[in-house]
Design a protein that fits this description.
alpha/beta, 8-stranded parallel β-barrel, 41% helix, binds the ligand Cc1ncc(COP(=O)(O)OP(=O)(O)O)c(N)n1, binds the ligand Cc1nc(C(=O)O)sc1CCOP(=O)(O)O, binds magnesium ion, TMP_synthase, transferase, Thiamine-phosphate synthase, thiamine biosynthesis
């Protein structure tokens, strides 16, 4: 089985704050979105706000500030970790295995996710990190919209990382997962294209999108987004929504 291809296929840009290139959040985001060159194939289709060092109030403020820019570009804003900030201002949330364990405690994940679905607006996206085949198989029974799978290669952007899974395992996971797969971890342009050819719906990146100026970020994001969309569409499966 191959998962359906979502409309948001392509570049999944992670805006990791504080920005490693020293840019303010809005400038880094403007670069990612390629403001002057927006077209469905030239910009990331998803931007994730990942602000691990911000407190809840600051994360909420950032999500409210950035959401209109992301939406004006025709993309979706996902907030990492923070369900409350995501529900208040964004189009979805991304949760890791540890986030889920903390949130659910002794409760079944299915039950907690059903509650989240009921509370969330229609179309709200829920993403879940997976790092092993067992986690992918567990996720298959969960009401999530996509899984992150990685790290594909070792990453410099996350200290506490799981062992690298590699491209062959990604290809298998893309075949067995009913959910669209977003590949993550250690990806540059070449690696992202390999992920697309392995069947990933998206390639998520932090480091490959960092630049010291807005123009530099824009050049990186535009090139990557365009190449990825072409590679994914070349597989020939029409997007489902
Ligand atoms: C698309 C995507 N995939 C995986 C992750 C990692 O989430 P998590 O394991 O919760 O780690 P943190 O990013 O929260 O440190 C992600 N953020 N996005
Ligand atoms: C945030 C994150 N999660 C990962 C996972 O394996 O779940 S890897 C990762 C870091 C991705 O950054 P870069 O593109 O710079 O390697
Ligand atoms: Mg997390």
């Amino acid at each position: 089985m191959r998962a359906r291809v979502p409309a948001w296929r392509g570049l999944y840009a992670i805006l990791d704050l504080p920005h490693a290139g020293g840019l303010e959040p809005a400038a880094a985001l403007a670069g990612l979105l390629g403001v002057m060159e927006i077209g469905p194939e030239k910009a990331p289709t998803i931007v994730q706000l990942r602000a691990k060092h911000a407190d809840a109030a600051e994360r909420g403020r950032l999500a409210r500030e950035l959401a209109p820019m992301v939406r004006a570009a025709g993309a979706l804003l996902i907030v990492d970790d923070d369900v409350e900030a995501a529900m208040a201002a964004a189009d979805g949330v991304h949760l890791g295995q540890e986030d889920m364990a903390e949130r659910t405690g002794d409760r079944p994940w299915t039950e907690w996710l059903a509650e989240l679905r009921r509370a969330a607006p229609p179309g709200f996206l829920i993403g879940l990190s997976t790092h092993t085949r067992a986690q992918v198989e567990h996720a298959a029974g969960l009401d999530v919209d996509y899984i992150g799978f990685g790290p594909i290669l070792r990453t410099r952007s996350k200290l506490a990382q799981e062992p690298a899974v590699g491209f062959e395992e990604l290809e298998t996971v893309c075949t067995v997962s009913p959910h669209p797969v977003v590949a993550i971890g250690g990806l540059g342009a070449e690696e992202a294209l390999r992920c697309a050819r392995a069947g990933a719906a998206g390639a998520a990146m932090i480091g490959a999108l960092v630049g010291a100026t807005e123009a530099e970020v824009r050049a990186r994001a535009t090139t990557l987004a365009t190449a990825l969309r072409h590679a994914i569409d070349a597989l020939g499966q029409p997007p489902s929504r």
